[in-house]
Amino acid sequence: MLLTEARFFGVGDVRLVESPVVEAGPDQVALEPLAVGVCGTDSHIVAGGFPAAPGVVLGHEVCGRITFVGDAVDGLSVGDLVTVEPHDYCTRCTYCRLGQEHLCDSKRGYGVKLDGGMASRMVVPGRIAYRLPVGTVPWIGALTEPLACCLHGMDQLDPRSGLPILIYGAGPAGAMMVALAAARGLAPIVVVDPRPDRREVALRMGADFVFAPDDPGISEPTEGLGFPHVIDAVGSGRILESAISMASRGGRILVFGVAHPSDEARIRPNEIFARELTLVGAVINPYTHHRATRLLGPLGLDRLRPAFYGLDQLDDALKAQQTGTADKVFITPHGLAAALGVA
Ligand SMILES: [Zn+2]
Ligand SMILES: [Zn+2]
Predict the structure, then answer these.
(1) Which phi and psi (to 5°) does residue 279 adopt?
(2) Where is the Alcohol dehydrogenase-like N-terminal domain (predicted)?
(3) How far is the CA of 167 from the centre of ligand 2 (A)?
(4) Quick one: which of 24, 77, 137, 280 has the fewest CB in 10 Å?
(5) Is pLDDT at 232 greater than 80 in this prediction?
(6) Can you give the pLDDT at residue 1?
(7) How many CB atoms neighbour CB 67 within 10 A?
(8) How far is the CA of 209 from the centre of ligand 2 (A)?
(9) Cα 313 to ligand 1 centre (Å)
(10) In this prediction, what percent of the chain has a pLDDT beyond 90?
(11) How much distance in Å is there from the Cα of 98 to the middle of ligand 2?
(12) How far is the CA of 279 from the centre of ligand 1 (A)?
């Protein structure tokens, strides 16, 4: 039997290839990926803007069904629906030894440096396969990874309930940030996005007010005080400048979106000082993957509108991720019914 895999070979060069089955080791599990999220990182990899290993199988937002469990793996069984925490850490650098593995010097991501889930079969260490709550729909399960990143961002922002929040960007991450903000009792939730369809998803996920970026009324819901919490879920210098200007005194600003490495913002140190602002970053999902599996249901992520593509439609899926109107795009290596959990 051969595996079908979507491998990245170089800029603009992703191909479906057939490979021999690799046996799983004693500390590993094999799974059939049922739904794999397509995200901005995948598009950046294919466009050459994010370094990935040539020949790697793409896909880091994985939900799958376990088909094999190695002898040394405890707590997992064949048939379990799992999500993968898609990182490997060196365990030896200073950051790893400080419990900050996500800042590891030699961190390697599945779907980036190690083979990911856009394949008919995936083999991973058992310790990074997390069992999902009974009844989880596979495409919702594939949202665990991006939700875990949002959860880390929210932890970094550390907002106070009962106060307003401003979120720039209502792509998949921004939309999940809206749901998390609502669950944490932030109010009102104000979202800025240039796209009407994304302003609509923000409302669907619990935003109280939505605005286009050039709308002069953005701070009106705070009676002109500005926002004690601001999230940049887009990633750009210009948005960081806006975020700082929209923050209230004592405001906390989370830089969450992935800006281009060369992008810059003009910041006046006096403003950070005099208005006592706090700027925080958040990268990936340290120790939040487990918590994210518990939140998939309560957050009502089934309000997102998905689009599904087969493994052989990756080009179309990447296009849809960049320009389509679905809230989130998924690859379905074992067919649509399996991704919907009705197979
Ligand atoms: Zn992603
Ligand atoms: Zn390390």
Answers:
(1) -105, 125
(2) 25-133
(3) 32
(4) 77
(5) yes
(6) 78
(7) 16
(8) 42
(9) 18
(10) 97
(11) 9
(12) 23
Over the stretch 73-127, which tens digit does the pLDDT of each residue have?
999 999 999 999 999 999 999 999 999 999 999 999 999 999 999 999 999 999 9
How many whole angstroms from 283 Cα to the centroid of ligand 2? Answer: 15
Ligand 2 centre to CA of 103 (Å) is 7
Block residue for tokens 């004592």:
250
- Architecture of the domain defined by 150-281: 3-Layer(aba) Sandwich (3.40)
pLDDT band at 22 (very low <50, low <70, confident <90, very high): confident
Q: Are strands 165-168 and 227-232 parallel, antiparallel or unpaired?
A: parallel
The DSSP call for residue 93 is S
In residues, how long is the chain?
A: 343
Instruction: List the structure tokens of 298.
Output: 């309560």
Neighbouring residues of the ion ligand 2, judged by CB less than 5 Å? 89-90, 93, 96, 104
Residue with tokens 């705070």: 222
Q: Is 49 a residue whose pLDDT tops 90?
A: no
- The answer to whether domain 2-143+304-340 has CATH 3.90.180.10 is yes
Domain ranges of the chain: 2-143+304-340, 150-281
Average pLDDT over residues 12-30: 95
Place of tokens 């887009």: 234
